[in-house]
Amino acid sequence: MESCSRTHEAAYMGMEDGGLLLKGSGKEIRHGRTAHNVSASSLRKKSDLQSISKIRFGWLRNILANLQEVILGTKLAILFPAVPMAIVAHVYGFGREWVFALSLLALTPLAERVSFLTEQISFFTGPTVGGLLNATCGNATEMIIAILALSQNKIEVVKYSLLGSILSNLLLVLGTSLFCGGIANLNKEQKFDRKQADVNSILLLLGLLCHVLPLLLSFGAKTAVEAAALPTLNLSRVSSIVMLLAYCAYLVFQLWTHRQFFEAQEDSEGDDGEGGEEEVAVIGFWSGFAWLVGMTLVIALLSEYVVGTIEAASDSWGISVSFISIILLPIVGNAAEHAGAVIFAFKNKLDITLGVALGSATQISMFVVPLCVVVSWIMGVKMDLNFNTVETGSLAISIIVTAFTLQDGTSHYMKGLVLLLCYIVIGACFAVIGTPLNPVNNIVNVANTSANNIVF
Question: Where do the TM regions start and end (predicted)?
Fold first, then answer.
């Protein structure tokens, strides 16, 4: 009885600390953590559960502890009221631009919490399954917005938002990180491991090739009839399947054969300067899974609001849809992840920063974009990889400039400044243009409509 009592007491003390403690040293538990996990942890804060631990009822204590960890366990908790406010604004018919703004703001903490929950689940599944889960859910917000936009046949919004996510990671996040890190570490030599950067760069170049070829085909169309006969859509679908296969190979490379290239290198001080404290799971597996499902459903609801009100916001604010989709959506939707990358650049941990920026860009380019093409194929929507001249040109220059920036394995603030200036110029470009994507596709639609009118 005494030993049993001690066991229950130890379990209770574990719950007082926020959940289930896992066995093993901190080094063992940290094994397999990716840069995304470590970066996201910079915005988390420890929960004080002393008052909750005094509650008699175990079920109530567990519920409150979960609420404390999931809702209040982040520095972005102040933004959670935007979630019910967005729903109320939609239900009671407030201005559609307000629904858009509140929904976009509410997606910021939700995206960070999805990263937190996937890491919690990985404590129980192991680093490999946890890595797969992170690779799938790491850009859940972008995927949900894209699929909802496709269901409403808003192909332009899908292309703009995905292009914006890649550009923001390569230029804004990486540029800000390198600039701030260079200023904060003027007297230190800034180095990073090129192996991870090289792998991501060649994958981004492969993705760029798949975008360039449909664009080059479109240049050969001199008339609407020729444009209608182009195999651009079929080429895009085949290329998307190739990109997804390449991404699967990348996951094998990242999670099995060359895991050491991608694991976040943490020093003896730990991620947050707390002396290498043991990492623990603060919520249980099924609790984490339930929270993850719930968060995903809320993200889907808010994403539907964003997609449905983006044109209204564009008209009300006098800003083009292209600028909102390429600039505003990625900045707000990935603010938590971006902030974490900048924080670790300040600490001169550029490997973590590169893992976040390049990893996210690669995931969007090689997984989310081709997945949207395949999903649109299934849905009967004709989405291809032709992002038009200006958009594809911006993507190409961004990838090339980033690759040159990282070629020597060192960094300073001037490199970051150049990336930021490139992003500003591209942002200004999309601020002044409001033309739809894929004019060739529009020509095709006009040609088909004219042909139908002639027939009937």
Answer: 70-92, 129-150, 162-187, 199-221, 241-259, 280-303, 323-346, 353-379, 385-406, 418-437
Tell me, rounded to whole angstroms, the distance of Cα 11 from its chain centroid: 36
- Yes or no: say if 34 and 359 are a contact pair by the CB < 8 Å rule: yes
Question: Considering just the CA atoms, what is the radius of gyration of the chain in Å?
Answer: 23
The answer to whether 302 and 90 have CB atoms below 8 angstroms apart is: no
The CA distance from 71 to 47, in Å, is 10
The CA distance from 326 to 324, in Å, is 6
Q: How many residues comprise the chain?
A: 456
CB atoms within 10 A of CB 108: 22
Residue pair 103/306 in contact (Cβ under 8 Å)? The answer is yes
Residue type, position 346, single letter = F
Cα–Cα distance measured from residue 408 to residue 405, given in angstroms and rounded to the nearest whole number: 8
Return the exposure string of 220-256: e unless at least 16 CB atoms fall within 10 Å of the residue's CB, then b: ebeebeebbebebbebbbebbeebbebbeebbeebbe
Tokens 């290198």: give the residue. 265
Cβ atoms within 10 Å, residue 389: 12
Work out the pLDDT band at 269, boundaries 50, 70, 90: very low
Nearest-CA neighbor of 285 among 128, 138, 118, 37?
118
| DSSP type of residue 154 | -
pLDDT at 272: 46
What gap in Å lies between CA 19 and CA 150, rounded to an integer? 40
The Cβ of residue 159 has, within 10 Å, a number of other Cβ atoms equal to 27
List, in order of start, the domains of the chain with CATH numbers.
35-40+57-260+283-434 (1.20.1420.30)
Q: What percent of the chain has pLDDT over 70?
A: 73
Q: Give the Cβ contact number of residue 12 at 10 Å.
A: 12
The H or E element that residue 411 is part of is: strand 410-411
Q: What's the pLDDT tens digit per position in 365-391?
A: 999 999 999 999 999 998 999 998 999
pLDDT of 390: 92
Give the pTM: 0.80
- Encoded tokens for 35: 């840069």
User: Rounded to whole angstroms, how far apart are CA atoms 20 and 38?
Assistant: 20
Closest CA to 385 of 326, 440, 320: 440
Cβ neighbours of 373 (radius 10 Å) = 25
